Structures are given as C-alpha cells and as structure tokens.
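Sequence and structure are kept together here, with a separate record for every protein. An example record follows, reproduced without changes.
>
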Amino acid sequence: VEGFGVAFDAERRDGVVLRNVSVVDQGSIGIRLRGDGWLVANATVSGSRTTGVEVNGGGTVQNTTVERATTGARSVGKADWTVTDSRITGDTIGVDASGSSGDWTITDSVVSGDRAVTAVETTGAWTLTQSVLRNYTVGVNATGATVTGDATAVYWDDGDAPTTAPNGSDAGSLGRGSG
C-alpha cells in the first residue's frame, strides 16, 4: 500500500489480522486498529508523517518493523497490547503510550527514537523486558504515570541505565544516553 492518508484503518473491528503487509510512504498513519484481538505480524511500515502503527484496544504487534515515522507506534485510549520481536523506530518517539489506560508490554524488541518510550500519565501497568532502547536522548519518560513500570533485562544502548526503576510517581525522564 502506498500514498494514502491512512493506509489501513480498521475502525471498531475486533479480530483484525494483518500479516506480511508492507505499507510505504503513506500520508499520516500507516496502520490504525481500533478493537480487540487484533494482530499485526511480519509487517513493514515505512515513511509515515505522523505514526507508523496506532492502536486502541487489545492486540499484538509481532515481528514487525516500523521506520521513518515521527512516532513509531502509539496507543490511544484503552490499550491492553504487546509489542514483541519487533523493531520500532520513530524520529521523535519510538513507542508512545501517553495518556493511555490498560496494560502494555514491549518484549524482545528494539525501540529507537529521541524519546524511546513515552508513558506520560498512563494509568495501566507497563513492562519493558528483554529489549534494547537505542538512539535516544530520553530512554523512558513516565512522568505522571499512576502505575510503576517494570524495565527488566533492558539494554540501554550506551550502558546508561536509570539508577531507579522507571515509574510514574516521580521518575520523570530516565535513561539519558547518546545512542
């Protein structure tokens, strides 16, 4: 798919499965999914002006590459979702769950962006595990989040891991590094 404002938009559809999809140089959003039980697998999203993958509801982004987007992946509203075995790159933000609710996990993935993970004012539990944060100024920003986050076995690409666990109460911006 090439050249659309939103290349794939599943508004209020449960159980949507996108496999082996390539979305290149679309207008604003590559893939937008709203509903539960969705799956994006073995996909490539490249060249979004705003967001590579935008989700609202429960599902999984698996074995997917997002690149050349202002924000690699973003959740809005209720966001019980997982990113696994993926490479998510945003020019500004890698993964943005700011203001979302519900639980979300990033596992076995590489996340890049000036702000690799942004979880500002999120109300759901979040977990980063067995993943790499790369090319960031701020690794995790969880300012104002109401639930403590868990960053277990995360490789901060310049070795500059935070001295306290990322959390929402007073952690602010963590994981500063040069990338």
